[in-house]
Amino acid sequence: MPSVEPNVLGLSGKTAIVTGAGRGIGQATVRLLRTLGVNIAAVDQKFEPGKHDNTRQGNNIVRLVGDVADPNSANAAVKRCVEEFGTVDILVNSAAVNLGGALLEFKDQEGTE
């Protein structure tokens, strides 16, 4: 990852919720935001047991297991973020599912089961 000056974007001390944080783009986003001094609530439905859990991980990150397609789970993630850090300044929605088909052919609730 290229080096980034810690407060070049003025994000140090801000708080982000990053969904899909367990792998791929979400995981890379968490790594980058941490180097910028951002507090992070990292949310993923499949954090590896034993490797990730719902406890504070270091000075500026809390990992939360949850499915943001479920409104109760999404609300719980926001609540926990505010409890830990006092606010939410940034939302990175990197959670995704591969449904295999044309986007415009899917109905509203497909893929949420």
What does this molecule look like?
- The protein is of the alpha/beta class and 113 residues long.
- The chain has a single domain (15-96), classed as Rossmann fold, CATH 3.40.50.720.
- It has two helices and four strands, in the order βαββαβ.
- Helix 1 links the parallel strand 1 and strand 2.
- The chain is globular and about 45 Å long.
Short description:
The chain has 113 residues and is an alpha/beta fold. Helices cover 24% and strands 18% of the residues.
Mean pLDDT across all residues, rounded?
81
Q: How many separate domains? A: 1
Let me know the largest β-sheet: 4 strands, parallel
Highest CATH level, the class: Alpha Beta
Tell me the Rg in angstroms: 15 Å
**Which architecture name does CATH use?**
3-Layer(aba) Sandwich
CATH structural fold name: Rossmann fold
**Which superfamily, in CATH terms, is the homologous superfamily?**
NAD(P)-binding Rossmann-like Domain
Strand order of the largest sheet: 3-2-1-4
Overall 3D form: globular
The number of helices is 2
Please estimate the helix content.
Answer: 10-25%
How would you summarize the topology of this molecule?
Elements: E1 15-19, H1 24-35, E2 39-44, E3 61-65, H2 71-85, E4 90-93
Parallel strand pairs: 1-2, 1-4, 2-3
Index terms:
113 residues, alpha/beta, Rossmann fold, four-stranded parallel β-sheet, 2 helices, 4 strands
